[in-house]
Amino acid sequence: MSENGDHDDEHDHDNLVDLIIVSSSGDIEDDFPLNQKVQALKTSVMGRLDIDPSKAKQYQLVYDGDPLPGNKTLAELGIADGSEIVLEPEPEVI
Is residue 92 classed as helix, strand or coil in its secondary structure? Predict the structure, then answer.
C-alpha cells in the first residue's frame, strides 16, 4: 500500500504516460498506464478505434520506426509523455 493513497488518481501522473496513437481509422490521445504491456495497449486501442481486437495479431504498434514488442511494458520501453505511436497492419510475410 502506498502512503500517499490510491484514491488520488488525478494527481498521480507518475504511473501514466500521455500518448498519441495514430492509425488509419483515427487518432487517440490519452493517458495510458506505464505498466501496461504493449499487447494490452494494442487491443485496448483497437477496440476504441472500432477495429476488431481479435485481429490484434495482424497489427503492430510502431514507435520511432521500430515495432514495439508485445510482451514489454511502456515503462520498460522508455516511452515518454507525448510520444506518437502508430498502429499499423503487420507487414505481409511472403
Answer: coil
Position 13 confidence tier, pLDDT thresholds 50, 70, 90: low
Q: Which long-range contacts (CB under 8 A, 24 or more apart) does 59-68 make?
A: 59/87, 59/88, 59/89, 59/90, 60/87, 60/88, 60/89, 60/90, 61/21, 61/85, 61/86, 61/87, 62/86, 62/87, 62/88, 68/38
Round to whole Å and give the CA distance between 87 and 89: 7
pTM score, two decimals? Answer: 0.81
Map grid coordinates 504491456 to a residue: 37
What type of residue sits at position 2?
A: S
Q: Shortest CA distance to 87 belongs to which of 32, 34, 20? A: 20
Sign of the alpha-carbon torsion through 26, 27, 31, 35: positive
